[in-house]
């Protein structure tokens, strides 16, 4: 390893403490992509699913030579101009009750490291078998196309119509536009990943 490389201990610094010293992030996969995006710091997403999980406009190297060119700063790491906004929209998406559904049927470790096997909550499964659960009905309805997907064009039109009928219009257009751009980027990226794996 070169003498200019230093592996930092996990708790030596907070990322925000280091932000003025960071030119480029190198991420396999993880929410660090969102943190760097919020700070406006470009990053290379190197895991296959990183750009799918975090489609906010960071750089995705095409191959090993591309990766090396970015790391040596021979090629500029150009990220989406609105990466901070996209990172904020991603956070909103993950926490917003319009998108997420509260239910507790299955548990897994918070990390990808297997600490214990995944398991089901038996009492929740019994409750679901006894009577319909609104959260499950909502998710199944979205999957089957019977309910509007939050953030989709149909859902946005429906919400605007309701707001206009009630005489109130919420200023979420920028967030909705950023959300659509992220979704389109994600679809394009998945297509490219499929093509590259097929060849």
Q: Count of DSSP E strands?
A: 4
Strand numbers in spatial order across the main sheet? 1-2
Order of helices and strands: HEHEHHHEEHHHH
Bin the strand percentage.
5-15%
3D architecture notes:
The chain is mostly helical. The protein has two domains: 81 residues, no CATH class; 70 residues, no CATH class. Helix content is 48%, strand content 5%. The strands form two sheets. Strands 1-2 form a two-stranded parallel ribbon. It has a two-stranded antiparallel ribbon with strand order 3-4. Helix 2 packs across helix 5 and helix 5 crosses helix 9. The longest helix is centred in the last third of the chain and has 26 residues. The chain starts with 14 loop residues before the first helix and ends with a helix.
Question: SSE layout and pairings?
Answer:
Elements: H1 15-18, E1 25-27, H2 32-39, E2 43-45, H3 50-53, H4 64-71, H5 83-95, E3 106-107, E4 119-120, H6 122-130, H7 134-143, H8 153-165, H9 173-198
Quick synopsis:
The protein is mainly alpha-helical.
Keywords summarizing the entry:
199 residues, mainly alpha, 2 domains, two-stranded antiparallel sheet
């Amino acid at each position: 390893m070169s003498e200019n490389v230093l592996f930092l201990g996990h708790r030596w610094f907070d990322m925000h403490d280091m932000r003025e010293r960071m030119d480029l992030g190198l991420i396999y996969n993880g929410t660090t992509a969102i943190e760097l995006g919020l700070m406006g710091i470009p990053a290379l997403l190197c895991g296959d699913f990183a750009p799918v999980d975090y489609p906010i406009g960071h750089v995705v190297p095409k191959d090993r030579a591309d990766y090396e060119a970015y790391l040596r700063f021979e090629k500029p790491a150009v990220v989406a101009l609105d990466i901070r906004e996209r990172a904020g929209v991603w956070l909103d998406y993950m926490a917003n009750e319009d998108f997420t559904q509260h239910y507790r049927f299955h548990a897994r470790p918070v990390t990808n490291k297997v600490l214990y096997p995944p398991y089901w909550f038996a009492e929740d499964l019994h409750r679901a078998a006894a009577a319909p659960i609104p959260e499950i009905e909502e998710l199944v309805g979205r999957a089957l196309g019977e309910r509007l997907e939050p953030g989709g064009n149909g859902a946005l039109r429906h919400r605007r119509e309701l707001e206009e009928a009630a005489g109130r219009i919420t200023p979420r257009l920028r967030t909705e536009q950023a959300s659509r751009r992220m979704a389109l980027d994600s679809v394009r990226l998945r297509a490219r990943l499929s093509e590259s794996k097929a060849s």
